[in-house]
Amino acid sequence: MSRKAKCGLRVSCSDGAIVSVVIDTPQGSRNKFKFDSRNGAYKLSKILPEGMVFPYDFGFVPSTKSEDGDPLDVLVLIETPTLPGCNVECRLIGVIEAEQRTDAEKPVRNDRLVAVARASPLYSDVTNVNQIKPAVLKDIEAFFVNYDRLRGVEFRVLARSGPERALKILSDARGKTKRTGVGKR
Predict the structure, then answer these.
(1) Does this model's pTM top 0.85?
(2) In-domain check, residue 8
(3) If DSSP states are collapsed to H, E and C, what string results for 40-58?
């Protein structure tokens, strides 16, 4: 049984919060892609250093706006990489709550939702970020710290939280878009 939640998600008692995620950058890629709304296409944003790759597919939830002004980021656990622009139906399992800042700025929240692709047989039983091995979570967090360091940005992990907190952050990010009209990548 499913219903529409206020934030536009389909919520099912058996599956948890289901959200559509658009992939920017596939797992294993050194290339960081970003959607260019002026051209209606993806563009190469940056190339990571040799040996550094995205650990899982990385994308965003359309029609959201996070505190950093961009749509809400999502790390999608899936066995194999998809493609930039691929729409993946996902189940939220949690969030890596974080803030970022440059030397001159005040810290700004830049949370990373964590989700499981519904089509994934490997991660089908994962319902909470705490079910992911601690070493894997530490590696994911270290990736974001190092990725932002390359951009001259300090990324600091504040907490790891479950799907309820992820849903609250998503709902708030959808509300910001409705109020401002910004963030509709």
Answers:
(1) yes
(2) yes
(3) CEEEEEEECCCCCCCCCEE
Report the Cα–Cα distance between both ends of the chain, in Å, rounded.
Answer: 30
- The tokens for 118 are 């519904």
Q: Are 27 and 81 in contact (CB under 8 A)?
A: yes
- Does any domain span residue 185? no
Task: Report if residue 183 sits inside a domain.
Answer: no
Question: What does the pLDDT look like over 52-94, one tens digit per residue?
Answer: 999 999 999 999 999 989 999 999 999 999 999 999 999 999 9
Domain hosting 16: range is 2-178
pLDDT of residue 6 exceeding 80: no
> Is 90 among the domain residues?
yes
What is the domain count for the chain?
1
CA–CA gap between residue 16 and residue 71 (Å, rounded):
22
